[in-house]
User: Fold this.
Amino acid sequence: MNRLFDAQVVDNVLVNGPFKLLSVRPLSDIFIPEPGRFFMLQTARTNDPLLKRPFSLFRYQEGILKFLYRIRGKGTECLAAVKAGDIIQLLGPLGNAYPSPEGDFLVVSGGIGIASLFMLLEKYKQRANLFCGARNCDELLMLDAAKALAKDVCITTDDGTACRKGLITEPFKDFIESSPFVKNPLPIYSCGPIPMLRELAGIVAGRGLACYVSLEEVMACGVGACLGCVTKTTAGYKRVCKEGPVFRIEDIVWG
Amino acid sequence: MGINSSGGVTPPVQKRDPLAKLQVEIAGLKLKNPVMTASGTFGYGEEYSEFVDLNRLGAIVVKGLSITPKQGNPVPRIVETPSGMLNAIGLQNIGVAAFIKDKLPFLRQFDTPVIANFFGDSVEEFIRAAEELSNVEGVHGLEMNISCPNKQSGWCIFGTDPRTMSEVVTAVRKRTSLPLIVKLSPNVTDIAAMAKVAEDVGADAVSLINTLTGMVIDIRRRRPVLANRIGGLSGPAVKPVAVRMVWETCKAVKIPVIGLGGIMNASDALEFLIVGARAVAVGTANFVTPLATTEIIDGLGKFLDEEGISDINEIIGSLNAD
Assistant:
């Protein structure tokens, strides 16, 4: 088994707006990926774009790796152009995984963050309270599938085009301050934009909760060599690709 | 010849090693092939050992070391550019002592020369790092990174001023008997002249090019993309510049030249060898695919076979430029 492998594209379909779902079948045996790990994906055969791009694994079903991504630069534009039958090179699974929850747990997802969290919902079915926020109704991705896997769901959009208007951290804060949760606290798993994670860090601070966040950073190698993807922690810079992408929220120094 | 498990002596293998055709020598170091790793792109070897048989490499040049650990720069530290990347890692490293204690034991398992890249903020720090790295088993050569600022004399870059460079290389040369490679900055008017200075004060070899300084702007925010504002450009985009500089340097000095800058495949490596580089280093390509080094080694062997050449040294400096 090798973490560097070729895979054949099964399909690469439009989800919504700038979001696509890429499915690839590895051409050799791979290490079984746990929720939270990521892969580096080759996006072109030329030198431009040059580097592989990191993506959280969205799903792993019947030997097929699925990546949910937003088209937002040259790399993802090239990735969006790959077609069924194409062969691309992958590196992974990389990084650490979310620690396994023992019982029920909370998931706080912002926007494309669901791409990293979905496997948790799928692996531990009907055990999560899902708090899912997005800018608008078009960016609430894979919501029906996520809803079916979660025990309970709370949804917000920044502009109010779906469900409650506002930030997802607002109902989340109400929930963890409610007496049932205070009596029976649960671990929290989160992925989303930095402002959401920073807000979350403030909300959970001092409550003694286990809260894990998955971070995103620009990467060159994905294997801990280039030191490009560091994040500031209470113990100095740590590599998102190696010591992360999952960190304890209290360890992160939010800039 | 070796001792087998029953204590007897095994007979020497008579068959000629098919890989012998790739052997080169740099400053007394015998390399199995001319392919080394470029400092900062291969960690301390361990990071890539899952993908690459480190025994196959010509040499391993480790991430730059300083006498005290360095935290490095804030993020963003890297940004991709057309056929290249700009980095401003800020020389983050664990320090010489931690390297010797935690990383070197792993590297000692391999039959591949380890070259410790090192730097300092002052001549004194260069000397201390060189001394500590020279007194341990498992470090076979030193590579000085002089593309860093001399904080004692107004932050000028050691490697862009001939006098400062001469001073620091002279000082280090006195304190080490290991093969000493000076890694040259391309951010100078005449890199061959800088190589000559290094040669004159006792360098055993020079390696070039380090990254070219560059800048990328976020046009919406009107800000530099990198937190450090400027960074070093590497990758295929810099290769023609690197080949030209290596060619000029090879004509100017007698000491071996190690060529690097944007080498992605065996053809790229051959360009450097043809203009006179005795060895090459692979950098950014490791990030693109972890197998870059071994694919290049295989490609060099294949090229020699295709050309009917039995010794890679016949390729080195074979340029017809008249």
Notes: The CA atoms of residues 6 and 12 of chain B lie 16 Å apart. Chain B touches chain A at residues 40-43, 47-48, 50-51, 63, 71-72, 74-80, 82-85, 87, 89, 92, 235-236, 264, 284, 286-291 (CB under 8 Å). Helices of chain B lie at 96-108, 123-134, 162-175, 191-200, 239-252, 266-274, 284-288, 292-307. Confidence is low (pLDDT under 50) at residues 1-15 of chain B.
